[in-house]
Design brief:
This protein is about 35% helix and about 15% strand. By secondary structure, it is an alpha+beta fold. The protein has 2 domains: about 130 residues, no CATH class; about 60 residues. The protein has a 4-stranded antiparallel sheet with strand order 1-2-6-5, with no helix packed on it. α2 packs antiparallel against α3. The radius of gyration is 22 Å and the shape is elongated.
């Protein structure tokens, strides 16, 4: 096992890093197979979760939310789904370390998606004037497609890891790279209680 801060070799079961003094009791981030296990009020090791390169300076905290998948049944009535999901969701907030390359990629995709979303109405209006009333469906569908596409690009571009479970003690997340997960202790299946 290696220290998540200075990358020095650390004996399994050690309570702190002998090289930098990092206390593992306060940074008890683990993995369970391909899932990242993050206790509440914990800091992730300063390595990019997507490629395991040294992370750039600290980023703002990202809020993650999760609700039981059974609530998706309520999508038959979207308004009821939104209200219930907002009431029963569990949230967690922490800094997600990213290298400068992934931070730039995230920023570029967010800007591109946002611009596509904002340009949807002007493009639809311009197409409407150019094509005339008999082809009105084309600009409307183009505008809707650009708006939806922009939102999808923003959502995918800003995504790093995704919550698969959050409770009052910890959160489980998918999407961390295998190299990042190898830095962490693999927690046996029954130890978390679920």
């Amino acid at each position: 096992m290696n220290c998540g801060t200075c990358d020095a070799a650390v004996a399994i079961g050690a309570v702190e890093c002998t090289a930098c003094g990092l206390s593992f009791a306060s940074t008890s981030v683990f993995r369970r197979g391909k899932l990242l296990v993050v206790p509440r009020d914990t800091t992730l090791p300063s390595w990019c979760v997507l490629c395991d390169k040294r992370a750039a300076d600290a980023t703002k905290k990202t809020e993650f939310s999760w609700h039981n998948p059974w609530i998706y049944v309520l999508l038959l009535s979207p308004l009821i789904y939104v209200v219930v999901a907002l009431i029963v969701r569990k949230t967690m907030k922490f800094q997600v370390p990213l290298c400068s390359e992934h931070r730039r990629r995230r920023s570029r995709l967010s800007w591109a998606g946002g611009l596509c979303f904002l340009a949807a109405v002007p493009v639809a209006v311009a197409l409407g004037y150019a094509l005339g009333e008999e082809w009105m469906a084309v600009p409307i569908l183009t505008g809707l497609g650009m708006a939806l596409g922009g939102l999808i690009v923003v959502a995918r571009g800003s995504a790093t890891i995704a919550a698969t479970h959050i409770d009052q003690h910890r959160g489980l997340f998918r999407g961390a790279s295998e190299a990042f997960l190898k830095r962490l202790i693999d927690l046996p299946e029954g130890l978390l209680g679920f």
